[in-house]
Write a structure and sequence with these properties.
Helix content is 83%, strand content 0%. The protein is an all-alpha fold.
Length: 178
C-alpha cells in the first residue's frame, strides 16, 4: 500500500515542482523534486523488504518515473529554449516509450515481469537523470556555466539509457530465438 502511495506521489509531484519553479521558488522546487526522486528508491525498498511487490505496483512505479522525468524535461526545454536539452529530452523520452513498449510486449509474451527489471545501466541512468534534473531546478541561482555542466551530466545519463536499451534488446532477441 505505502509503495503504491509513494508512486502516486511521484505521478503528481511534477505539477507543483513546475509551478514552484515557474514562480521562481527554485529551492522549494528542488526539494520537492528531490523528495519525489528519493520516493522512487523508497517505494522499491519497502516493497522488497516487506514482500509486497505486485504487478500493479511495478506498473505504477514505471509510470510514475516516466511522468515525473518527462514532464520536468519537457517543461525545462520550453523554459530554457536550449537545443541540446531538447535533443537529450527527445532521446530520453523515445527510449522510455520504447522500453515500456518492449516490456509490455515481453510480459504479454509470457515473460515474468521480474525477469525484465532494470539492469545496472538503467539504475545508473535513473540516478544520474534524477540528480541532473534536481540540479537543473536550481540552475537559475548559478548561471549558464552551471547549466551547461548539468547538461553534460544529463548527457551521460542519456548514454547509460542507450546502453540499458541495448540490453533490453538483447533480452528480447534471446526470447525471440526460443
Amino acid at each position: 500500500m505505502i509503495p503504491n502511495l509513494l508512486s502516486a506521489f511521484r505521478m503528481i509531484a511534477f505539477l507543483p515542482v513546475i509551478i514552484l519553479f515557474s514562480y521562481e521558488y527554485y529551492l522549494t522546487s528542488f526539494f520537492l523534486f528531490t523528495a519525489a526522486a528519493w520516493s522512487d528508491f523508497l517505494d522499491g525498498f519497502l516493497a522488497r523488504k516487506y514482500n509486497i511487490t505486485s504487478n500493479l505496483g511495478s506498473l505504477l512505479d514505471l509510470l510514475a518515473d516516466k511522468i515525473l522525468v518527462s514532464s520536468i524535461l519537457i517543461y525545462l526545454v520550453f523554459y530554457t529554449g536550449n537545443a541540446f536539452l531538447l535533443i537529450l529530452t527527445i532521446i530520453i523520452i523515445v527510449r522510455e516509450i520504447s522500453i515500456s513498449s518492449l516490456r509490455l510486449f515481453l510480459v504479454s509474451s509470457g515473460v515474468e515481469i521480474s525477469n525484465i527489471t532494470p539492469d545496472k545501466y538503467g539504475k545508473l541512468k535513473t540516478f544520474l537523470q534524477m540528480f541532473s534534473l534536481s540540479l537543473l531546478l536550481i540552475y537559475p541561482y548559478f548561471g549558464e556555466v552551471f547549466f551547461l555542466s548539468i547538461l553534460i551530466l544529463l548527457m551521460f545519463s542519456t548514454l547509460f539509457s542507450i546502453l540499458s536499451f541495448l540490453n533490453y534488446l538483447k533480452i528480447w532477441s534471446s526470447i525471440e530465438e526460443k
